[in-house]
Write a structure and sequence with these properties.
single chain; 461 residues; alpha/beta; seven-stranded mixed β-sheet
């Protein structure tokens, strides 16, 4: 059979070109560069915690949205969410002291390399999701097992010197609490509170990629409606702050931080984000060597983003363009799913919380019928339908040597944020073609030079 015309990429987690606020950015840049009182600071090295007007504007916006006290000193500007994780690991972990990195699976797979680069090769552990977001029982059992295997030492031989403004955590827990990538699940309020309690018990730092909090919409009604309560669940850093300073946390660093970014709201090329946590943690992060050497990251971009927030242009772009567009694309994908994939036995969650009223983010997570491996589907989709989809194995924790295997061999991730609406629907149609072809005779496709071993189906069970 000839290859379908025109490649469709349903893996790429980028905003579509028509979602990029180029005109608003241009106006904001012109304003910044036309005023010496702004551009003289914006084009120089900045304060270590970040461009103050952006910290002020973010504090106004975030405190209103989450209904928490305004405090710019809890915010540190970053060079984006990924760069910020690297800086957190530089300043708040030591491979000689920090025992393990814990990642909920299926995971944001590209984060694995950041943890491995920080010296945690072989010590990254996966723990499962449940219907409320994370399996806390499994996580705690895993932490206990690691602690039992590594008895406490009074004077560990550290690789780092433990500076005045830093501390080293015994464990790091990485999660995407809201509209997780790839599963789309949102962690319930109960799970959020219990996770912070667990982190305090085991001296763990919870790094929360809160990158989709502003990219949610109701399943019914206008995307401008933010009154659905589950769309304003408190961040873990706010829950931690509300619990008060733990007695053993004598310097007040806290146990949960929020990792934010403008990549999904404005554009990945902006390379600007922020951390919000305790004052001590935020300032300590600003004292990371790479930040102190070059001053605040993304200083000029931060000045433009401060202008976007000050004028409400970003808020308007989110409410008028991004959320309605993502809502429409998600609805189109789900309509195509019900028409083409559901009759073939494919399953997909409808809302971010069980029986919830909203969805969000960029992705949907499909469960294939029994005995149809996702890798086979992905290979046939590419070679026979010119379609790229996310094979479930991509989202396992890379380098997890714990012996506990999380198998996503029946899962596919699709993104609805990037391709055109016509290609989105066409992509689902092509995926249906693939599943329909191989559901009864999968071995036929294993033998058709897709680079799969002859015993692939047996080993994929």
């Amino acid at each position: 059979m000839s290859l379908a015309v025109g490649r469709i990429n349903l893996v790429r987690g980028w905003p579509a070109p028509d979602l990029l606020p180029a005109h608003q950015l241009s106006a904001a840049a012109q304003h910044v560069l036309s005023d010496p009182s702004i551009y003289e600071a914006a084009l120089q090295y900045g304060d270590d915690p970040g461009y103050r007007p952006l910290r002020e504007a973010l504090s106004d916006w975030l405190s209103t949205h989450y209904n928490v006290s305004r405090d710019p000193d809890r915010i540190c500007i970053s060079g984006g969410a990924s760069q910020n994780i690297a800086c957190i690991l530089q300043s708040f972990t030591d491979p000689a002291y920090t025992r393990a990195i814990w990642m909920v699976v299926p995971c944001y797979h590209l984060a694995c390399a950041i943890f491995r680069d920080a010296g945690f090769e072989g010590r990254i552990r996966g723990f499962s999701e449940d219907e409320e977001g994370i399996d806390l029982v499994e996580l705690e059992e895993g932490i206990k097992n690691v602690d039992e295997q590594q008895p406490a030492v009074t004077s560990p031989k550290l690789f780092k010197d433990g500076r005045q403004y830093h501390k080293f955590y015994r464990h790091v827990i990485y999660v995407v609490p809201t509209c997780a990538n790839p599963s789309g699940k949102t962690m319930s309020l109960r799970r959020r509170k219990d996770l912070v309690t667990l982190a305090r018990k085991y001296d763990a730092l919870v790094i929360c990629d809160d990158v989709y909090d502003f990219l949610q919409w109701p399943l019914h009604g206008s995307a401008e409606n933010l009154e659905v309560p589950e769309m304003r669940l408190p961040r873990l850093c706010d829950i931690d702050l509300a619990m008060g300073q733990a007695p053993e946390d004598t310097r007040g660093f806290g146990y949960a931080v929020s990792n934010g970014t403008f990549s999904k709201m404005v554009g990945p090329g902006i390379r600007t984000g922020w951390l919000e946590g305790s004052k001590a943690f935020s300032f300590g992060l600003s004292q990371t060597g790479s930040t102190m050497s070059g001053g605040s990251p993304s200083q000029f971009c931060a000045s433009i983003l401060a202008e976007l927030l000050r004028t409400d242009n970003l808020q308007t772009h989110l409410s008028k363009i991004i959320r309605p567009t993502l809502q429409r694309r998600h609805r189109l994908l789900m309509e195509a799913f019900h028409q083409r994939l559901a009759p073939l036995g494919v399953e997909c969650r409808e809302s971010s919380l069980p029986n919830g009223a909203c969805y969000g983010g960029y992705f949907v997570w499909l469960t294939l019928p029994k005995d149809i491996p996702s890798r086979l589907v992905a290979e046939v989709a590419l070679h026979k339908e010119n379609l790229i989809v996310g094979n479930g194995a991509m989202f396992e924790v890379q380098g997890d040597n714990s012996g506990k295997h999380h198998n996503f061999n029946r899962h596919i991730r699709l993104t609805f944020a990037y391709v055109s609406e016509d290609d989105l629907v066409e992509g689902v149609q092509r995926l249906g073609n693939v599943i329909q072809r191989i559901r009864h005779k999968p071995q036929q496709y294993v033998d058709q030079s897709l680079g799969l071993p002859e015993n692939f189906l047996e080993t994929s069970k």
